[in-house]
Amino acid sequence: MELRKDPITQSWVMQVEGEGAWPEAAACPLCPGQEALCPPTIYVQPPDSAHWQVRVIPHLRPLYRIEGDAQRSAEGIYDRMSHLGAHEIVVEHPDHRLPLSQQSDDNVKMVLQAYVARSADLKKDRRFRYVTIFRNQGALAGQDLSHPHSQITATPFIPRRVGYELRSCKRYFELKERCLFCDIVKQELTQQVRVVDANELFVAFCPFASRVPYETWVLPVHHHAAFEEDLSSHDQQSHLARLLKRVLWRLQQVAPAYHLVLHTSPNVAFKLEQVGAWQSLAQDYHWHFEILPILPAQSKSYSLKEVYYNSLLPEVAAKELRDLVLRPT
Q1: Domains, the chain, with CATH or none
Q2: Which of 144-158, 174-188, 248-262, 267-281 shows the lowest per-residue confidence on average (mean pLDDT)?
């Protein structure tokens, strides 16, 4: 495997010779009692407990390898490098059939604590420029293991969409000396037409230019660029756990699958050494979750390729999600 850079779009593409097969196992490797089928545990909650609720392990079939360096090289005008990085699995609960949206608030909070701990640890590695946390829920989203889990990757590059966001936020701050996302949050909270759910610390809404039906973003109401720094307190974690769980439950009533991705600021070491004069990054960027539901009939979104096609207005989608009666917790 290796990474190759598209010189036109500036995106890095993983090149793989055949996908290979998953290791064969008679039981789910992520279930309690099957720990011997997995690599050694990196992180566990509760700590020093005989019975785990959340644990983090290296991925059973990682896309990135933590050993060595990037080995950046050129082939004429093209750039390539090794698949340096980290690839981890967050096992979200011992129960094989209990998705994140149906877990207790306390357990979702422990999942967030795992995100925070692993993000902070991986960002200490000066070889990595970005840490991504994501969930693929459901077969349509490419969920490869049926046990409820999330994934974490650390890469020596910044994903293309995040790079676009960083540059756009920098330009907006240079023009107005304000955070673009903070202005979006204020407008959404004022208008209320696209808000799905909110509390005093976080808000969930369908973005104005939603790419797919029921697309939902979750953001902190108050400004912060780095997820792992903002989510350092139990109060923040508890508020986000309750809101995120409600949002995911709503989305699963209207879509069989979804992608969830955390967008946050790049690695601190990278910022200090590589960004140079970009001193406003802590002020101009705003971390957030983006959740894109997948509806089987919505193929037109992909057939247009260069322009997203969304057949459901975000204002209508937000109202439908708000009106869903939440299940008791």
Answers
A1: 33-155 (3.30.428.10), 160-323 (3.30.428.10)
A2: 267-281
